[in-house]
Amino acid sequence: MDFQAKYITPDIKLSCYEDKFFKSDIMFDHHMLIWFISGETKIVQADATYFFKKGDIFLIPRNQLATIINYPKDGQPHKTVVMHLSTKRLRDFYASKDIKIKAFASPKILCFNNHLLLESCLSSLIPYFEMKDLPQDIAYLKITEAITILRTIDRGIDNVLANFEEPGKVDLVSYMERNFMFNLPLQKFGYLTGRSLTTFKRDFSKAFSTTPQRWLTQKRLELAHYQFVEKKKKPIDVCYEVGFENLSHFSYAFKKKYGYSPTEVAGG
After folding, report:
1. CB pairs under 8 A, 24+ apart, for 213-217?
2. pLDDT, tens digit, for every residue of 242-261?
3. Whether residue 15 sits in one domain with residue 113
């Protein structure tokens, strides 16, 4: 089986992908605290690209678009402990705390490598994945422990974890220009720009004078061409980073638009 997951609760899992290439465009509904046991991954966001490997610990804030690319590494599976810090759990945690947060538009992925307390907390979960009928209180305590450690090592983390606002209506043009490379359902784009699907399509047509799918395809192909010419990247890398799901479809669409294949413009 290519993918396996073991759960302590729906919020805590041990995730394991076999030693194969895997790519997904996602938007997380909850903050994700991740500890890498083995393997490598690349996470591409609109403004930054991150590489993570064995031993790394990081937090992906909720409602952030990202392309996740898992790479084979030394025959080892891509294996992580993943803890969801859900809005409900965080509301419970912060209910008794009097804090003032500073909201900011786009929180980045936060890295917490080499923090012994946090690594100890996450690694201590490993034995629980083999147990049956684990009391829910233990899982609750482990999540509370992780949040407490995060607040100890990062004084600004409350601005991320205690911000419970949902996405508001934002400028559609600037948002789509920054995030067109993420291959998500239009409903997700609507949610993240503060619109229903119907309103999103209507506003999009008014702003761009075309359909979302046509515009997205053209923007992705233009970015791909730039990556080949200016960045000298390989077709296999560009294909997935600009929002296509497979190389054959990408190559067909690229040649249809430009008259030559990705390998020709990329030099092989």
Report:
1. 215/176, 215/180, 216/180, 216/243, 217/253
2. 999 889 999 999 999 999 99
3. yes
